[in-house]
Amino acid sequence: MxxxxxxxxxxxxxxxxxxxxNFPITPQTAIIEVISSWIASGEMNADxxxxxxxxxxxxxxxxxxxxxxxxFSATSSQGLLLMTEMMxxxxxLRLPVVMVNVSRALSxxxxxxxDHNDVLAQRDSGWLQIFCSNNQEVLDSVVMGYKxxxxxxxxxPMMINLDxxxxxxxxxxxxxxxxxxxxxxxxAYNPKHTILDPKEPMSVxxxxxxxxxxxxxxxxxxxxNSKDIITDVCAEWEKMxxxxxxxxxxxxxxxxxxxxxxxxxxxxxxxxxxxxxxADGEKVGMLRLRTVRPFPCEGIVDALSDVExxxxxxxxxxxxxxxxxxxEMKACLGRDVTSFIAGLGGRRIGAEKYEQMxxxxxxxxxxxxx
Amino acid sequence: xxxxxxxxxxxARLLLSGEWWDLSMLEITIHGRGGQGVVVTSRILGTAAxxxxxxxxxxxxxxxxxxxxxxxxxxxxxxxxxxxxxxxTKPNILMLLDESIMEVKDVFSDLPADCTIIINTTxxxxxxxxxxxxxxxxxVFCVDGTGIALEYLNKPIPNVVIxxxxxxxxxxxxxxxxxxxxxxxxxxxxxxxxxxxxxxxxKACELVPGREQRRQRDEDR
Lengths: 370, 221
Prior knowledge:
heterodimer; A: alpha/beta; Rossmann fold; 2 domains; 6-stranded mixed β-sheet; 5-stranded mixed β-sheet; 13 helices; globular; B: alpha/beta; Pyruvate-ferredoxin Oxidoreductase, domain 3; two-stranded antiparallel ribbon
């Protein structure tokens, strides 16, 4: 029985992360607390670097990764936003950093509960973004994260997102893989690119002019490449653990007429609702987006091409535009979807409201579910 | 934690409202005050359920938690993987580690009709049913958990004792699993305190009214 926080820490430990820069006060979570106790007891062989702010944490992640080490950190809500400036540096330098974000609503006003506006504020930062649905997936995703990020066709940092409280503070059974198995799956980091070595000096992040656009184009290409790499790494993981992951998770889609699309841990309650409605003979289903960056457009089109009515649930809002995932879904599918804004600031959604959403599909509107 | 190796289907049942139920998604809400062991209560139940080869989920709900402040924790137990998440609004079992909670919080509103309520108090169930008509038809059990804790541990921390009482009522988890879970979750405390907690809990377990007859009936089945 471990929490989402514990699962994230286990992922970093099994992946043999060597340096853990952190800002160990609010809004930090228990992830760093667990890791610090392991480092203190010698159970985890890593350097614990307390910094003076999240901005510095992100700088330290980039610096330590440039020096060729495998690095890990964790943050949450406001802390993630304070990292913003350096997030773009980390991805621009093509450093395979893996970081966990515990997504919680942004101030003001203050709430401690889950909400996706923090992580989606980093949507365009050039980081891969994985949204987890349970604590096992958190552990698995952190380990797989290094293998994906360090792949020479990718070389992008990865953010593993888990929902505050709903996963972070909730304990559930999690299988912890053997270290030997993980060592075979994920060998030590062997950087071939962006490495600061006094014996072979290299300048990174210098001033460019016209070349800038080429760098961005390569970043985009890496993001496109990552789709195949994520699929391959997930297949390898499934062989080892029997647990299947991918870019999207379809649920009861074979003959579905009405489908709700969702990210994150609320998908479990939506599955429960689908089971319940299916027992009554309703042809409903769910599609969970496991990656938001890269946006899994091919997988979405594949899964939803025969579906009559689609709804998209956003635990986020871009004021002046709408639900962020709904907007991207419309662009990807080229058709209307019903956009539901729900669960902001962790407001309880619950099975009864998912049932309500299934009933209200079919109109191209944005509806707020309070 | 050692892995669960034994599947004993006979334990995947629960005594509620006087009847044995097949266990399907049991939800427990625990109220108390910071320092009484509310969160540890949920963790012991979750860990014990896992030892009994069931699926479990446990989680606390805290804002600005401090000693004495109202705290809630929740447990879900099922024989299948648990899909529901988030706080529980319709518990099958409601545990109050501190009776004064009902003065500051409306803990009895909106409970399902077959809810089983356990209150840590020196008063009787009849007293609470008179005071709170909304629970008049529910099964209400009272135990002086704090008194038993003071007697056995010399500390007014009633949580483990009340879990013993809960086991006496519901057979929700096995005594074996309970003992292992207490050792896991209280591992940072001295061994004799853990042992005293378990002795106090077993005492509370025996205090459940009608327990002897029920055990007999259970053996007959």
